Fold each of these.
Amino acid sequence: MSGDVLVYDTTLRDGAQQEGMNLSVADKLTLLPMLEAYGADIIEGGWPGAIPRDTEFFREIAATQPLTRARLAAFGATRKAGVDVEDDQQVAALLASEAPIITLVAKSDARHVAKALRTTEEENLRMVRDTVAYLVEQGREVMVDLEHFFDGADYDRDYTFAVAVEAVRAGASTVIACDTNGGALPDGILARVGELSALLDEEGLTATIGIHAHNDGEMAVANTLAAVTAGAAHIQGTVNGYGERTGNANILTAIANLHLKMGRKVVTDDQLADLSRVSHAVAEIVNIAPYRRQPYTGVSAFAHKAGLHASAIRVDADLYQHIDPARVGNDMRMIVSDMAGRASIELKARELGLDLSDRPDVLSEVTRRIKEAEALGYTYDATDASVELLIREVAFGERLSYFDIESWTTHLSGSSEGSHGAEAVVKLSTGAGRSVTVGEGVGPVDALDQALRGGLCSVYPELEDCELIDFKVRILDPSAATRATTRVIISMSSPAGIWATVGLGRDIIEASWEALTDGYIYGLFKAGVPVR
Ligand SMILES: CC(=O)SCCNC(=O)CCNC(=O)[C@H](O)C(C)(C)COP(=O)(O)OP(=O)(O)OC[C@H]1O[C@@H](n2cnc3c(N)ncnc32)[C@H](O)[C@@H]1OP(=O)(O)O
Ligand SMILES: CC(=O)C(=O)O
């Protein structure tokens, strides 16, 4: 354990219970170093014996021993009612997993014992006792997830607490109070965890108390922190809060709050500074787009849009941020929009490497043009490349110039049987002369892109590696039907990075053409090609 609260990661088990998440064995193996990187002390790998992929995962780990620091936990249930623990196939599978830690889920709500297990309260206590004692005898560390602990305690406090005591008496190192249905509030968590801690003391029992909180009331992180305040020294959660239904406590947010706000050294400073990278890397592997507004690690977590904020931030960044974003590996960003003031533009320019602090005329002109353009329908929130082209144009008195477009045309051919594709012709001139290029594509924008690339790449080979990776269309005034204004945002990538440009037009082709030409201009600029 790096600090005074142990971090137990259940991304690979409870995280994988999220709707739409489907982790292969290879995915789980790829995620392991990421979970270790942010400072997980224990990684729960899944439920061997229940889920064939998890059985395979534990086999792989036993064979390859990939963990460098964290310990591995296998998750499973207590023995079945009426079955000897030695004969329970799922308990046997937990042992076969070779995981040094086994986390058992035990019913701790009397209603679940009656309705879900359909057994007696006494038999459930025996199931807990037998399974914990047996696994401890076999040399495993055993932790017990007290399922529905908080709801159970509200219904029949004595029974819920009796299950916890039974687990500790049988040898469990840790009992985890679970808010399985995710509806608890911090006050209740604080009280119940405090009572559990006091009860274990009264009984002369020693065990770590843990917390496992679901997010159904959007309280999972708050509840986790409340439990720590009440004496929990083991927190469970998942990267980015993945998990069953609305998810689990986001372990990254919980760690950042504990470390930076509550003075609990849960991970090292270096691990803390890796939180943002891990959040995004894990999102890539599980194939779920990162949540931009995720606290601490989201790309918008330290992004400022309002002009008034920017004007104060220019003097002191801490005036409008709750922590220094670098502590969690994130960055402050300025967003330029019609809410910008001159300070926003100055800070954005600084981000781009331009000092405009003594150019009030430029700041005013860019601000004016941004507001005017946004009123027409342009958007600059997510199109930094268009913002940079505009700032440079105003600051240096002319647009970056690599080519002149003489004309472009495109047409789509079709018949009653459907569309047959599109063709475009682009006539342009560069320093190397005039060219006329034909492009063919699946649609008119694709054809225009092919023709433009064709004309440019022969002169600027730097564009060979540049590709169009995303294309978003928005009709701004749909009530105007076919006369509506269309906005297109195009994203491009090259070895130099990813950038986005915006175009506006009376139709999708005109809007795309503007975004496309700006995209290539920016690509040439990013590649360091000198202007004409
Ligand atoms: C709160 C949580 O998120 S816990 C984690 C939940 N995760 C999962 O359920 C994912 C993996 N689960 C599975 O693959 C399957 O549900 C299995 C293999 C565990 C069980 O499958 P099946 O044998 O077909 O049973 P089924 O899923 O229908 O019902 C669960 C059984 O476990 C019993 N059970 C539930 N909790 C416990 C427990 N803590 N201890 C012992 N038995 C339990 C139920 O009473 C039920 O028994 P029954 O078959 O005699 O009615
Ligand atoms: C164990 C578990 O996942 C829960 O109670 O929510």
Amino acid sequence: MKDANMTETLTFTDPRLAELDGFHVQLNVSNERADIILARPPYNVISMGARDQLRLVFEALDADDRVRIIVISGEGEHFSSGGNIKGFLEASPEHVSHLAWNIAAPSRCTKPVIAANRGYTFGVGFELSLACDFRIVSETCRYALPEQKLGQIPGSGGSARLQKIVGVTRTKDIVMRSKRIPGQQALDWGIATECVPDGDLEQAVTDLVTELREFSPMAQRTAKKLLNDTDDALLSTAIEMEGLNYSRLRQSEDFREGVEAFHAKRKPAFTGR
Ligand SMILES: CC(C)(COP(=O)([O-])OP(=O)(O)OC[C@H]1O[C@@H](n2cnc3c(N)ncnc32)[C@H](O)[C@@H]1OP(=O)(O)O)[C@@H](O)C(=O)NCCC(=O)NCCSC(=O)/C=C/C[N+](C)(C)C
């Protein structure tokens, strides 16, 4: 990557990528926004190697100061029909042991991550989206964890994350019946952040990127980490951690800038410090 405003496809130089089975993840970076595209149409099936690629891409983007917001989408009509079923029997124990860690990469990333979901968003495609901070879906989106049809269960955090969002009854309905959830229902159940007509998906994502870029990167990072860390915590612990993080954030330049801009009736100019 050269400068923040250019669009280019990342060339992976990490030697660990040399052994991967195919190159199916594209990356474009422009204007502080990074687009990760699952590029294996029509169904953007995610190979074991693509999972490794995804993790490495998220780690690289997280470390790059020129990137503020990350968007993940699928090429064409579908986000992804999930993991490559045809390769499951050949998967190495090493790959299997990394499944959940790789797919949790958006959640570990300190920057805001948006999933843009349309069409089939199945299996590991859904799990990957659940690890993101925002899910903007189109009306064509169909979420599913269809592993039971394969004599399997989700293995990359899908049922666990879903249960947190929709509770055990709905999760059992989705997992144990391999049920498909349409975009509008995903919104109604709190799985999706927003549901829009298919032709409006890109604009809805761009609008959210524009909105998020207005905020202090430091305050965003703190909010994301705090909410992730306290997801499992007792209420009393979560409240205490919120207070500690607030106190720490008070020391930042962005905190002062936010308050001074409010007084001056001007737009804040956050620097991330
Ligand atoms: C509804 C689907 C996606 C499309 O149906 P269709 O009738 O339009 O097309 P068709 O079934 O003929 O598919 C065309 C070709 O694409 C291949 N395909 C599609 N999805 C996959 C996939 N996920 N893996 C491998 N190959 C796939 C399909 O086999 C056809 O190939 P050929 O032309 O026959 O060579 C329908 O295809 C469907 O329901 N697919 C399965 C979706 C699914 O079960 N996804 C979950 C996979 S499991 C997973 O993601 C995570 C597992 C976690 N862990 C590993 C821990 C167990």
